[in-house]
Amino acid sequence: MDIFREMQNGDHEKLVFCNDNTSGLRAIIDIHSTKLGPAIGGCRFLEYHSEDEAIKDVLRLSKAMTYKSAVSELAYGGGKAVIIKSNSCEDRDGILRAFGRFVESVNGRYITTVDSGTSMADMISIRSETRHVTGVPVEMGGLGDPSPITALGVVWGMKACLIELYGNNSLKNKTVAIQGVGNVGYHLALLLHKEDAKLIASDVDAEKTRRLGSEIDVKIISPEQICYQEVDILSPCALANTVNEDIIPHFKCNIIAGGANNQLSKEEDADLLHQRGILYAPDYVINAGGLIHVVAEYEGMKMENVYENISKIYQRIRKIISVSREKDISTNRVTNSMVQEKMNKLRE
């Protein structure tokens, strides 16, 4: 991989490789942009097949965080971190504390938080080394788990799509297929159940679907089947690249609206959805609730401020859909154009 070329192509500011032999830490921090403010984004703790795969993941995700922050009108840039998990990962606290020291070393240009493979407990370890971390428990002055807030933002986004296609924003008796019922997907299912939606769900972890099925009325199917269901809404809430040119021709949904990051494999996939008449809620708009939540925590705001900002996702999605209809282009191209225009003005 030509790392500098990748950074130049994506307009990334700083890539930090972190190694600590004592704890076994191997991590990468990417600061995509600080034009709007300090970069903020989660820390993943996952296994990767190669270092190149980890680099590609952090570069892609950090850029998405810049876009998410910009479209959400937050005074922050985009960043991301990945801790490369190994089979011999025994000293988790030591690894996280070493990572916290690297976060501290960039002097507030990057603020970390919870992501795939990390938890609020992990943020406590990181916080012992740096104050540039959010997503800590309420008893430590935090705002708690951001997952329910991300899920609430997804519900607002779904309603914005529904009013466009159905003339009202009611989820009652609408069939929603949720791909992945981990943190966000689980809370999304609970919220949709309260809205009297009909639910179908899957997850690669059978324990997660068992837990959900014990709490609410939901049809559980295999992960291989979830994208082929005839539903009103398909909601990707697992990992990236689930919407791609191979699967799009087989979709039997009217709307795609989910909590996962980087749902599209590439930009052109949004064009294919548009051509098929499937309304896509751009992921970094609809799932911005978690970011709004951790920013509020970092700035010392209260939950009332969070709920007020989350509700704005509804109008943002409606505006994007309106422009998409007017220009006959995909919702994703509309959103990217809005962000790029905002970033270009900062360069002037």
Automatic annotation (TrEMBL):
One of its GO terms (biological process) is amino acid metabolic process. The active site is at K80 (proton donor/acceptor). CDD domains: NAD_bind_Leu_Phe_Val_DH. The keyword Nucleotide-binding applies. It comes from the Bacteria. SUPFAM superfamilies: Aminoacid dehydrogenase-like, N-terminal domain (SSF53223), NAD(P)-binding Rossmann-fold domains (SSF51735). Its EC number is 1.4.1.9. NAD(+) binds at G180, V181, G182, N183, V184, G185. Pfam families: ELFV_dehydrog, ELFV_dehydrog_N. Residues 144-348 form the Glutamate/phenylalanine/leucine/valine/L-tryptophan dehydrogenase C-terminal domain. Transmembrane segments: none annotated. GO terms for molecular function: L-leucine dehydrogenase activity; nucleotide binding. The keyword Oxidoreductase applies. Keywords: NAD, Nucleotide-binding, Oxidoreductase. Belongs to the Glu/Leu/Phe/Val dehydrogenases family. This is Leucine dehydrogenase. It comes from Candidatus Scalindua rubra. The gene is leuDH.
